[in-house]
Amino acid sequence: MNNLQLKQLLKQYFGYSEFKKGQIEIIKSLLANNSTLGILPTGTGKSLCYQLTGKIIRKPVLIISPLLSLMNDQVEQLKYSGEKKVVALTSELSYNEKDFILNNIASYSFIYVSPEMLKNDKVALQLSKIDIGLLVVDEAHCISQWGPDFRPDYLRIKNFRKLLHCPLTLALTATATSEVAHDIQVNLFDSSETSHVIRYSVDRPNIFLAVHESPSSTEKNMYLIELISQLNGPGLIYFSSKKQADRISEMIRIKTNLRAASYHADLSVMNRYTIQHQFMENQLDIVCATSAFGMGINKQDVRYVIHYHLPSDLSSYVQEIGRAGRDGKRSIAVLLYSKTDIGLQQQLSIDSLPDDFDIDNFNTASELDDPSSTDRVLQYYFDQNIKTDKIKAIFSKRRKEKLEKLNVLLRYITNDGCRRKYLLKYFRESVIPEHNEKCCQLRGEELKLNEFKFEKKKYKEDSLVNYKVILESFFKT
Amino acid sequence: MNDDKWLLFFSDTQPRRHAVIRQVLSNKRTVSSLYWGMQYHILDWLNVEPELDEKQFDLQIDNLCEKGYLAATSKGLILSAAGIIQKKDYQKKSYIITEPSLFQHIDEKQWLELLPLLIQVISELSYHNHRYYVVGSSIRAQLFFKNWYQNIANKNDLASSLKQLLKLFLEHLPQEQSNIFMALFSGHETIGKTTEQVATMLPKFSHEDVVSLWRDLSMQFAFFLLEGDSNFRRLVVPLSTKEKLSKSALITYQLFNDNLSIEQIAEKRRLRVSTIKEHLLESAILRDDFVYHRLITTDDYSIMTSTFIGETIDWDYKQLDDHIEFFKFRLFQIERSKRIE
Asked: Does some domain include residue A410?
């Protein structure tokens, strides 16, 4: 199938006229029956690769995905595009519902499943009975055993894949060092198999990179208000704390005429839907969010991403700012930093790891109702009969790695040279563009917002509509 | 959240309410919590706050004590003079759930996911639109909904029928409440507002008020559908139950009504006699058709009737000098309390 034919199908099924970087290479590789590892930066439409392939090969696509919210978003997107035969098999379902889906599994074209579900014998059996055209392993870096996002259940995939007679496979991830890429291949494919690796740069040249160092949180808040009052929206502000996201969102509403809302895991599903979609429809200028936001949200014209707190590491930072400028237009990423933030990030990412005491007292026999990911990892190591001392060493190493990653991030802030160069060097990219004024703000330089500034808009005061009017507009009778 | 809400359930004379309030609101059923919940007239509120966190609740009660709205006595907490004023003020200014008893009969969690889905799907159906993002709901709710939807023979009437039902339901409410309620839904080419957004538009409504209104009116609408005979009734029926008793208590109660004695029931169910008695007390509290004289003899009645006068809540078992077992005393107390009601 040539590029033109593929473009026609893209238009026909999804309404887009152009492919994004990397998509067409991956689809062609799959159509040539090559199992593929795709390393594409966030915002480049990784899911479209298997969605379009699935439509072309007309066989069921099975997608293993680690995050419930991500799965639900993707199910919604597929349904929106007119694909009704899509389902997600998750722990959220009751026994009867799972049973119903499994008994009708052959009628679905896209089946999402969480890695935990593969443990279930009936799930494995029913899935092995259908002729899977493409197996997709999303967030494939979770398979890397010594990596920070390791999910033990991902190691089951290799055997599960054999059970399915090794179907054509696509492993996807946004950021993977060469070690992780190797790990993915070893843990997914047999040594006799060859797989293609398609890797694209993490660089997003249309996103201007900037940092603002604040001496205090009061100054930070003042600066934030000043910044967003000038910046052309819509924009995203990321937080590490749900409470802070609520507070700042309220502060923005009071101090500016911008329409802001907060978004995090404590909101009801209905409110989450409302905020996501108000944002997509430009009924909101700013979403103050925790990292829970935006995983599956496909908004092209986000003009800025601000980090109110430190992200957990440089990889997450790249992922999160990648939500800006998907339309390719100029956008800006500003990292707000004050020294007190280090403590918070350290607490979130490092102190949450089990220490020697937790490991000594971990009860492997206890039934975990809702095991945390750390408990799962611990359970896995114990199940593998790894000695306690070794486990302690693993976590001690991981703690050091996390600390080192935090330092790498801090050096991104304090580094005197080009920020983009620093970033690309860290990801060991071979091509590093020369610094220019459109690239980033160097340390100590004043942040010039000229090209990101917007014309002041006045919004009408929002008021409630009479319910009878709503009823008339909702139901065309 | 406004801690003052809990003042609604306290009294200025009965100091032992604290734990009962928490147990009743969060549906933690024990014979004691049910009995005292009945005596305090708060049983209608069973299960209105199923997610209530014990620690959080206690902190909020501490907070009310610190503010001086609750006063500590040797027996527990009572409303202070300032607390009485504050409670009245809260009642005047806040939205208070008007039909709390529905929360025992309809699965709130499921319904609050299904209702927005219902309104959106039928709205889009009326425009023959198939390309839209389905409102936030669990896959579980979506499957449940789909199952209902696929079994409807004639889908053409759904939109006009739902519109008419909503109109009928809403026109009996104050208009502002109806406006708030409908503003929260998404429909064709309209994204609803969040509860918080609605609250910021209305000075008289706090965020918590809007949430309470949303829960209350959603449940009332479910009940409204249940009482009718539209297609939508079938969506609510599986989520509703008329039964107030817990499963196990219900089995005991049925056997009791089949004329089995307490001992026979215990043997048949392989449960302890004391458990069976607890089930029967629960039945007496929650059901209105309990046959007391099967357990309380004429003699028992005459002894207790002559011993006790005044408010049932003040009766002291010790006055019976162990002539009658506590179980019968408690049953008699329940019967008389209900008679007064």
From this structure: no
Chain segment A370-416, per-residue pLDDT in tens: 455 677 777 878 877 788 888 888 888 888 888 888 899 999 999 99
Chain B contact present for A225, CB below 8 A? no
Q: State pLDDT tens for residues A407-457.
A: 999 999 999 999 999 999 988 888 889 999 899 999 988 888 887 877 666
Residue in B119, B130, B194 closest to A274 by CB: B194
Shared-domain flag, residues A67 and A102: yes
Residue B132 has pLDDT above 90, yes or no: no
Q: Whose CA is closest to B127, among B59, B194, B188, B210? A: B188
Domain hosting residue A314, numbered range: 207-344+415-452
User: Does residue B186 sit at the A interface (CB-CB below 8 Å)?
Assistant: yes
The mean pLDDT value for B91-113 works out to: 95
CB contact under 8 A, A274 and B136: yes
A216 shares a domain with A121: no
- Integer Cα distance of B200 and B111 in angstroms: 26
Predicted pLDDT of residue A243: 93
Residue A464 in any domain: the answer is no
For residue A135, give the H/E element and its range.
strand A134-137
CA of A472 vs chain B CAs: smallest distance (Å): 8
Strands (E), chain B: 70-73, 76-79
Indicate the number of domains in chain A: 3
Residue B243 DSSP label: -
* pLDDT given for residue A369 in this prediction: 47
With an 8 Å Cβ cutoff, is A179 touching chain B? no
Residues A329 and A228 in one domain: yes
My answer on whether A173 and A238 are in the same domain is no
Provide mean pLDDT across the span B166-180: 97
Are A342 and A406 in contact, with CB atoms under 8 Å apart? Answer: yes
Q: What is the pLDDT of residues A340-372, one digit of tens each?
A: 888 877 777 777 777 888 888 776 655 444 455
The answer to whether B214 and B195 are in contact (CB under 8 A) is: yes
ipTM value for the complex: 0.89
Same domain, A312 and A419: yes
C-alpha closest to that of B241 among B226, B258, B255: B226
Domains and CATH numbers, chain B: 3-94 (1.10.10.10), 108-239 (no CATH), 247-340 (no CATH)
Position A362 scores a pLDDT of 76
Q: Please list the ranges in chain A whose pLDDT falls under 50.
A: 367-370
Question: Chain B within 8 Å of A271 (Cβ-Cβ)?
Answer: yes
Q: Is there a single domain that holds both residue A294 and residue A175?
A: no
The predicted pLDDT at position A363 comes to: 66
Strands, DSSP E only, in A193-259? 196-199, 207-213, 235-238
Chain B, nearest residue to A90 by Cα: B139
Task: Give me the numbers of helices (H) and strands (E) for chain B, helices first please.
Answer: 16, 2
3-state SS, residue B79? strand
Assigned domain for A476 exists: no
Taking CA atoms, A105 is separated from A85, A204, A287, B104, in Å, by: 10, 40, 38, 36
- CA distance linking residue A177 with residue B122, whole number of Å: 49
- Average pLDDT over chain B reads 93
